[in-house]
Amino acid sequence: MKKTILFVLAFCFSLSIVEGNIGLAFNGKTEKRKDLPVHGFCAHRGAMVTHPENTIVAFKAAVEAGAQMVELDVWLTQDGKMVIMHDETVDRTTNGSGRISDFTLAKIKKLDAGSWKSSDFEGEKVPTFEEALSVLPRNIWINVHVKGEGETPVMAAKLLQKENRLNQAFLACSGKAAKDAKEAVPGILICNMDRQDSNWDYVNATIKMKANFIQLKGKITPEFAEYTKALKKNGIRVNYFGTDSPDELKLLFEYGVDFPLVNDIVHTSGYLETILEGL
């Protein structure tokens, strides 16, 4: 009888592995872990070509287009709230003017973050980090570019832990920010953004710090294959910033890059299957 029970338990556990839904304990809660993509396209600031960047509509459009990873940028407001915007000021992507750090959340929420792109998006608001997470599914990667240091990386890591997103989200940040975040939340994933004078210096520094991701950039050369080989030997996933060119995307995958950042995810996503077929 005891052997039968043990067999049934073992069988159920093996099924949970196949399904990719093993329960993980974070903060006393159980999270169902879903399978995450091994490669694909990262939607830079959401669907930023067709929609106002770093907004809820842009993130929803990126998900609908089939993005395997979504990138966003996090800043702190004057009253210590995390909001999503690329620039240090609100000038370019809202109808306001000034530094994000000079706005309270209430004031930044009064801004129009859509009309600058098109009248179709009039009234779109600057999202908080929590609001952005709420529209991003649990089966894609979330690339959180931390802007500024200080409290921001720690707060971002703590929110990801609270929201049970530690398995799928990572902080793209400096070494100092990574250190601060890991002291607060040891399980946080890190993409090393401390780029060096040469790609090899960058690769070696990323391996040394035991980061989870790297984000290469610059001219695509055959040496990329050597970079990715060394990185993957150390369990590091490889992003690249950035291109929408089908030929360059194909080359990047051939050289072992996992997730190129693209600006036009709505139109680029259709290339993925065709590109990967020949690899």
From TrEMBL:
Residues in the signal sequence: 1-18
Stored InterPro entries: GP_PDE_dom, PLC-like_Pdiesterase_TIM-brl
GO terms for MF: phosphoric diester hydrolase activity
Transmembrane annotation, as ranges: none
Domain GP-PDE per the UniProt entry, residue ranges: 39-272
Any matching Pfam family: GDPD
Organism in which the protein naturally occurs: Maribellus comscasis
GO biological process, any: lipid metabolic process
Keywords of the record: Signal
The protein, known as: Glycerophosphodiester phosphodiesterase
Superkingdom of origin organism: Bacteria
